Amino acid sequence: MQSVRPGGSDICGGIVNAPHKVTLRVYNVGFGDCFLLTFHYPVRDRHVLIDFGATGGSESRLLLKIARDISKRCYGKLDAVVATHRHRDHIGGFAGRSGGIIAACQPEVVVQPWTERPDADVSGLPALAFAGEEGLTNLGAVKNLQRMGVRRFYVHHGAESGLESVLPGVTIRVLGPPNFEQSQRIRNQRAQDRGEFWLARHGARNRGGKLFPAARTCSPSRRPPNTRWFLDGLRAIRAGRMQEIVRALDSVLNNTSVILLFEAGGKKLLFPGDAQIENWSYALSRPGAREMLSGVELYKVGHHGSRNATPKTLWKFFERRSGKPVAGRLRTVVSTAADRYGEVPCPTLIETLKAQTDFFSTQDMGNELYEDICIKC
């Protein structure tokens, strides 16, 4: 895979109101995603930040360092921010000091999935106000994103991305997630999840009901000493249960991940966040999906290379994959860290990517903070 450092001279295109080159800056966040897309125009560059998060012991220091580089790279002005979904390894950097730096870049547009709209009727999906909000380690990032940007777009399949206004000459298609009117699959999966049962109980509690409405109560200071061990045990159980519920809700968020397909100068770049099969199913079943995806030039590998985020149907649509290193072969980029979450990245998927694409992984970056990849037209 060809890459260039800042100041590279690869040129593509030639249309005045369209970018003549696209540079993808891949940040070395370990297990997480952080990509800065720079569209080079004759007058000025346009910058789109796609996700900003990481997991790890030195996370805050790393994200602060990356935030400063993003600000330097875009000269203190971001045109857009895309937060594909609310997992910490995708939005953790939007909190705290690093989040303050990004907010200071005053993005014109912020794009998030439709489930993040504050007033969204999610009917059981994990929106911001779901019970157990206090258990979210990335709550600061979620709330910061709600305040960030001049305009905010909460998107679903086929919706306007909002990026068109800041990226002239670029076609952007929103392929996911579907909303409930388009597909019930994400709702059905959640109905099988343990978090759904708890949300129903939460609704009853919000109506003001008590488990034992006629029982006498006493203040904490007057509780009999022989009940304290029991109450302490109940608190521990409740805390554990709350964490379990938050984890259960957290595990289904990938199906609400934004999927974006950029096309500039005839080149297509696909960014699916952590979208898994339930998210992909609707887009892949639409008329014209094969034709739309067949010419993808660069694919950001979904969900850090997990086994269920690159559906085989999608893989077969990619006509640029090849067992030989020919010109124009599909480029794949995976941001991941081995041995953190079982078989992520999936060995068989990585082997296939290496064999049939121009493969790039953040695991091969060593101590480098970023790598710039030029997309030629």
Brief overview:
With 377 residues, the chain is of the alpha/beta class. It has 11 helices and 13 strands.
Descriptive key words:
alpha/beta; seven-stranded mixed β-sheet; six-stranded mixed β-sheet; 13 strands; 29% helix; globular
Please tell me about this protein's structure.
With 377 residues, this protein is an alpha/beta fold. The chain is 29% helix and 19% strand. The chain has 11 helices and 13 strands. The chain has helices spanning 59-73, 88-91, 96-104, 139-147, 185-191, 194-206, 228-250, 277-285, 289-294, 312-317, 347-356, and strands at 21-27, 34-40, 46-52, 80-82, 109-113, 151-155, 171-176, 259-264, 267-271, 296-300, 331-334, 358-361, 370-375. The strands form 2 sheets. It has a 7-stranded mixed sheet with strand order 6-5-4-3-2-1-13. Helix 1 runs parallel beside helix 3 (96-104) and helix 6 (194-206) packs across helix 7. It is globular. It starts with 20 loop residues before the first strand and ends with a strand. Residues 1-15, 126-135, 186-211 and 239-251 have low confidence and may be disordered.
**Helical content band:** 25-40%
- In whole angstroms, how far apart are the ends? 15 Å
Find the structural class using helix and strand composition: alpha/beta
Shape: globular
What is the number of helical segments per DSSP (H or I, 4+ residues)?
11
Tell me the Rg in angstroms. 22 Å
Q: Determine the strand fraction and express it as a percent band.
A: 15-25%
Question: Main beta sheet, described?
Answer: 7 strands, mixed
Output mean pLDDT: 80
Strand order of the largest sheet: 6-5-4-3-2-1-13
What order do the helices and strands follow?
EEEHEHHEHEEHHHEEHHEHEHEE
Number of E-state strands: 13
Q: Which regions are unreliable across 5 or more consecutive residues at pLDDT < 50? A: 1-15, 126-135, 186-211, 239-251
